[in-house]
Amino acid sequence: MNNQALVTSAQIMLRVVIGFLFAAHGWQKYFQYTLDGTVAAFGQMGVPAPTLIAPVVATLEIVGGIALILGVLTRVFAALLALNALGAMFLVHAPAGIFVDAGGYELVLALAAGALAIALLGPGRISADRFLLARIAA
Fold first, then answer.
1. Is the dihedral of CA 35, 79, 112, 24 positive or negative?
2. How far apart are CA 124 and CA 1, in angstroms?
3. What pTM was estimated for this model as a whole?
């Protein structure tokens, strides 16, 4: 396997895994906790303007996660999701330390790093972005 094939494989793997995890967390906020429950939880955690922020975050996570998987507006959604994860880290998880079992920041830091890597690397050769840009350029 050549270097380009390895890079393409890594980009797809990163997009799919990070996208899936974000989409799952957004789905959880809407359908497992319910949006009202998420708003209440955000309020208890000290997130500012929870009635505004909770639906924005939940929607960003679902839509952005799916967009990463497909490679649609990849850099934009990856950057927004990285900011989302960093916000969660600093607003909620940092005081609890590193480990997730104590409410810490290890998961959100890993998600932020993954999303930021995608934003920096781009979607790769196998993505909707690449297909759409090729069609527009033709």
1. positive
2. 16
3. 0.93
